[in-house]
Amino acid sequence: MAYNYFSYLCFGWAFVGIVTRILMIVFGERWNRWEMERAYTQKKPIWVIVISIISVIVVVFTWYQVFNLEVAYSWIIAMLTTLTLVKIAILTFNYDQFRVFASNTLNNPEKKMLLNSIVFVLSLVFIVLGIFVY
């Protein structure tokens, strides 16, 4: 079962990416308001710290699996997972700057479309990795 860890990680990431993009499109401005008024409130919410801790645990566990399971190309998903720590670090340590970025992205149709497109394409890549590589 642990051998499938990398495919589960890929499918989980793809699921979150695709579902959030669909919700952003379907709810439009309501999604923007929800993100800025509920998810990314003026004062840093406690979930940011919780998600930061969980993210670090996932990255460490993923690298542990890379070195202990001998799954071909597992380092690819480990590197991608590690890159999420960049967002987590900004969210944790520069929360106000992240809020400005989020607001600018959500309120600029071109930036929002670019973000959605990149996340959707990456989600498809994760699905392909989960099916054909892991």
Account of the protein in words:
The protein has six helices and no strands. By secondary structure, the chain is mostly helical. The protein has one domain.
What features would you highlight for this structure?
134 residues; mainly alpha; 6 helices; 86% helix; 0% strand
List low-confidence stretches. none
Largest sheet: none
User: How many helix segments?
Assistant: 6
Tell me the structural class: mainly alpha
Write down the domain tally.
Answer: 1
Mean pLDDT: 94
Radius of gyration: 16 Å
How helical, in percent, are the residues?
over 70%
Estimate the strand proportion.
under 5%
| Overall spatial form | globular
Secondary-structure element string: HHHHHH
DSSP strand count: 0
**Through-space gap between termini:** 12 Å
Q: Which helices and strands appear, and what pairs or packs with what?
A:
Layout: H1 5-27, H2 29-39, H3 46-69, H4 74-93, H5 95-106, H6 109-133
Summary, kept brief:
This protein has helices at residues 5-27, 29-39, 46-69, 74-93, 95-106, 109-133. It has 134 residues and is mainly α. It is globular and about 45 Å long.
